[in-house]
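Q: Hi! First time doing this. I have a protein sequence and I read that you can turn it into a structure. Is that right? Here it is:
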Amino acid sequence: MTLKNYYERLERETPPKTAFVKEIAEECQVTEVTVRNWISYGIKPKDEKHIEILSKKTNIPIDELW
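A: Yes, that's right. Below is the predicted 3D structure, encoded as structure tokens:
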């Protein structure tokens, strides 16, 4: 395996939790740190659109997210 092969495999092997955070951050146009704060510290997004995105992506009703 070459260094290039190793590097190319890294992207495909992104852990599911990391991939989820990145996906939500991109879709909500916020930083990954912001998404991790929503998850880890129970900080509720101020923008209702972000809450709707989280609900849709996780299939968790809005009133049960926090």
